[in-house]
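fyi for ur records
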Amino acid sequence: MNQVIQERIAALRKVMEREGVDYYMVPTADFHNSEYVDQYFKMREYLSGFTGSNGTLVVSAGEAGLWTDGRYFIQAENELKGTGIRLFRMLDEGVPTIQEYLQAKMKEGQTLGFDGRVVDTAFGCRLEKALSDKKIIFAYDKDLADEVWADRTGLPSHPVMVLEEAICGRTAGEKMAEVRSVMEKEGTDAFLLSKLDDIMWLFNIRGGDVECNPVALSYAYLTAKECFLFIQETEVTDALREHAAKYGIVLKKYDETADFLKNRTEKECVLYDGRNTSYALYRTLTEKGECRDAKNPTELMKAVKNEVELAHMEEVYLKDSAAVCRFIYWLKKNVGKMKITEVTAADYLDHLRSEIDGYLDLSFPTIAGYKENAAMMHYEATPDNCKELEAEGMLLVDSGGQYLGGTTDVTRTIVLGPVSEEIREHFTAVAVGMLQLTNARFLYGCTGRNLDILARQPMWDRNIDYKCGTGHGVGYILNVHEGPQGIRWRFTEGQSESVIEAGMDVTNEPGVYIEGSHGIRTENVMVARNGVKNGDGQFMYFDTLTYVPIDLEGINPSLMEPGQIRMLNEYHKAVYEKISPLLTEEERLWLKEETREI
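which gave:
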């Protein structure tokens, strides 16, 4: 494979030379800056061999480099071996950013090429600023993929589903009215919406154009009186036509978006979000007239779940948690007695989810990592490359489902047999961190940066860190990763940060990842709620949605304080009370033991 990657890079360099491009940049994105993308957009993976969901490749005549974040350092190191591509570990000390690298390497007047449709405006503008003194030429209309990637697939296309308003809590008309109210306050006449999950939420529709993410490739353009939805004709159903007519939504062809913006004759100040609008469309907007870069108003509206959504989510999470409990019971009962691999274990859990009423899909491909493989946060086992499980060590399983009524995300690390005392110490620290954040009481106005230390402190006490955030928002029958809410400690210039609002859901997933040894993560999903309000302000707390036991075989109670033991016992009591009615008698007896007091 590494020889193949070298040949692909060489082919790209030939095209670059012919096109007069000195440096070529390939991010991991589609036309909407989606986190996960269809096969059509996986140019960076094709050229580099790195399969992680986040990474940017930069190629010049003499060097190729790939930038990715801490979740993928181990994976990228392995996958890039022998390719000649240098790994740049983002945020590590002494590692330049892409802007800093290009600023240092590029000579005055050289050309930087990239497909402006898959580079977001915010990043494109940062590049402009960083390279302005060198008079770098931006060739942002260069999609060299079609020439290098001979068997590239076509754009994905799947029929759109219109959701019943009974499970949405609000109509598309009500949502559009709220957006128009924000547009008026911002002093804008129109709103260009590029973010796929926001578009799905706004119109109460869902698609299937990204694996595990129920979104359809589309754009929306909203004015005070008009609304346009740009979507592939092959995705338009009779139900969508009827729905669009009901709410005054004009359906247009997906590939007409840029021409529509160029030819629009009305004098309008257009609101757009530079984090999610492509650099190519941004250049079209700025050449056309006045525009304003601001956060999508839909983002916060979507993140704060209404009571109808929350009621459906609570029901879905109980069923999903029961499936995970059944999986853990099956695994512990059978490991060492029958052949089980990382892949077949994941398949069994996927099967259990598929039997739940309202199941649509997984919310992401199930991650099952045994022993040292669990140290790779986004490890992906395959039938040809996976470990067989034995009655020793631990299996980390990160999984979730898409249902008509919610999107789930849960991780448990399951002890299959003897583990070292160091591993038990790490396991206990992760559990304590998760429980401390679960039981947080905080004042309104806090962001995730204020709360992160509650989860991370047990690891920092041991001079250990996990190179990712502690939590992210989760969509409602939408993307498993959702903003603007999040829980993280690091401040990064320009990074979005949001106050925790009542109704926001967020994951709680501290971990320990020791390369070559083990990985541990315990993850629940929580919902922020308003608590007591007094002269000191509005106090808040979290309600838990996920009810799956934390493996007591990994816990060392001697390392826990009395209050921490009480939190674990109270959580396990709730797990048994809520989940046992959904299990068989044999499974209930097992769960009773798994949730015993310590």
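The chain has three domains: 2-148, 161-302, 304-592. thats all i got for now
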